[in-house]
Amino acid sequence: xxxxxxxxxxxxxxxxxxxxxxxxxxxxxxxxxxxxxxxxxxxxxxxxxxxxxxxxxxxxxxxxxxxxxxxxxxxxxxxxxxxxxxxxxxxxxxxxxxxxxxxxxxxxxxxxxxxxxxxxxxxxxxxxxxxxxxxxxxxxxxxxxxxxxxxxxxxxxxxxxxxxxxxxxxxxxxxxxxxxxxxxxxxxxxxxxxxxxxxxxxxxxxxxxxxxxxxxxxxxxxxxxxxxxxxxxxxxxxxxxxxxxxxxxxxxxxxxxxxxxxxxxxx
Length: 267
Known about the structure:
It comes from Aspergillus leporis. By secondary structure, the protein is an all-alpha fold.
């Protein structure tokens, strides 16, 4: 693009004004192939095998990972998002018992989520039996609670759900019954599995977005002359196609559309 296209703000022409910073960004713009592989890495890391297969075909790039191997993580995530925590724990142990054995905080979080689901079930009816929830708390969580002050606090807060009506929960209790808790723990489980398998627990795209946000913050703190608003610069047509493919849904990637659960990184 010629210098004539970069006009000063005082110019009377209608040609759009380009900030000097934007010109520099344009000079180092990543290639379409680089963006495609970032998207593929994101889909693989976060467990969307069907979308990854479709994207590989549409973007005409080679898959660097056995996409079918992701299915175990998908099945575990599906169980957690549906509230079937016992099945998720069993699948994790079948995959590798060390994942939970070496991560007591994650194990406790899963057990507490299982308690939440039991409480959700027993309090859904006016005359619901709360004994299964109490028995589970006594046998599975109470022995672990003394080992960590946070465990004890989390257990006490969760049991408080048995006291207050679900339609009138305090701000500290309401999040326990919100779907976001399932999603947060499912993400932690996915990261733990990847780490156990010797893989990166977070997609490169997420790391790049965090690095970009950090760099922008530092630049603004240093009063650098940068535009008031900065786009990520990763909005590629193929990336958009991937989002559309995920929204259309396939049997393996149902959690990308169920309950509005589309990851904000690709929405």
